[in-house]
Amino acid sequence: xxxxxxxxxxCRTIENIPGSLDMTEQVxxxxxxxxxxxxxxxxxxxxxxxxxxxxxxxxxxxTSLLYAALSKAAxxxxxxxxxxxxxxxxxxxxxxxxxxxxxxxxxxxxxxxEDTQELSILEVFERFKNISKVSGKGSQTTKIKNLQxxxxxxxxxEAGYIARLAIEDLRIGVGEGIVRDAIAKAFDVPVSDVERAxxxxxxxxxxxxxxxxxxxxxxxxxxxxxxRPIKMMLAQVTPTxxxxxxxxxxxxxxxxxxxxxxxxxxxGDNITLFSRRLENVTRSLPDIVSAxxxxxxxDSAILDGEAFAVDDSGRPRAFQEILKRxxxxxxxxxxxxxxxxxxxxxxxxYLNGENLLDKPLTERRAALLGCVENTGSIKVDEQILxxxxxxxxxxxxxxxxxxxEGIMIKNPNSSYxxxxxxxxxxxxxxxxxxxDLVVIGAEWGYGRRTNYMGSYTLACHDPDxxxxxPIGKVGTGINDEQLAQLxxxxxxxxxxxxxxxxxxxPEVVFEIAFExxxxxxxxxxxFALRFPRLVNVRDDKSPDEADTLQRIESIYSAQRK
Length: 561
Ligand code: AMP
Known about the structure:
alpha+beta, CATH 2.40.50.140, seven-stranded antiparallel sheet, 21 helices, binds adenosine monophosphate
């Protein structure tokens, strides 16, 4: 059994290595040193994850829960933990400092058990597993107790890495690339085979164990498996239809439906659905499950598509409504009746035991058309093969007139590349207008943004009352230099501070890009922005020149037309 101490030591060594080659060497050594049971756990841990990305298991540890566990373990107040976080900018260092302050003081549980029992890697994993299993009433207390046990059973340094693992952010600079190379090095398997096996399994831990046990031959046998989702292929933005089409001799054009992605695994009558983030959403979408069961004629299949909902006039309903369906845990049947979903399938990557990933899109699509019975609620997305940009523009306008997002321009000869955003799938959507919004609040940042105001509350102007009405928060699109400058500017505008929250005098206007305006009960304006991003600080604008509630309302209704 390897102690967690060894893992923590390896992390500290790796953390201080500047070059990725030496880092790979160290990770490879660690993978060789642990036993077969520990190998998958260590492979995930070293990348800062506890469970593989495809797994339904989730830790669900937020900062407040972590602070509570640390405060109990170290015997200091949550306020003191928060100050340490502000001071160190890192939850790992916070945990180490908090527990160090304790061990200097009184005899601790950890000092008591230190000589008798050493925390092992597998024990840490088991505790995390316990944490992921609990739900409902009392679950917070159980989670805190498990974390507290881990903190009190480890040295302050180990506790630092446990705290970072608890929020799945190990911060030692080891990502998928380094782990891939380290597995290849440790078990003498070509990097390309490790990479392919990871693409098919979505599980580096499994690839590592297979490489160690069976070498290259067994790694090459790893394949897609039903109920183990693969990453979705992604699309890149194309600035114009003309450039996109000119890059492909013939382009495959499809509508870009305004809905949510689903990956469907069919194993006989057993259907499993995964969201874009690979969460298992089967229980929430019984209508899609039965449509697939009835109308997909295959013993086994992995299909890719978009689920959307339409209103009485046949126009797509707001994205939020679809998310309501995906997130629903109770009253599922009622919500399904209120927001029935329509499924458009556009890809097939596995059929009756055969992996189709490397086949060209045209072949995958022919196979898809061969096994789906088109009905109202489930259909294969229409596709036109063309090199005529006028025709593509016509399809684009039709898609927009129907209320959908735009079009996808796909390379008909391309294979399906899980998780890749490349030139084989391009998307064309209209460019959204931006909004000028007033900054009325901020939040002290976390991690790299400690001591900076990391996210800003935005408001629109209501000329009728003269009030500024909140509409959302923005934290993206801000570079480090801007962050420092903005913090400086806003420090003079603080009205009150409470914990991490700051209320600001409404003086600064941000120009904000966004994907969509949604209705919301979270903000006083009644609206919220989807994917807001800072484009510019509009020093030239005063707060009362900011966009009005009326403009927000009109953009919102234009979106729906
Ligand atoms: P975006 O979310 O803007 O990156 O655009 C890519 C997304 O468009 C995919 O993840 C799908 O959810 C969605 N989509 C809608 N229609 C299609 C289609 N015909 N082919 C591929 N993706 C589509």
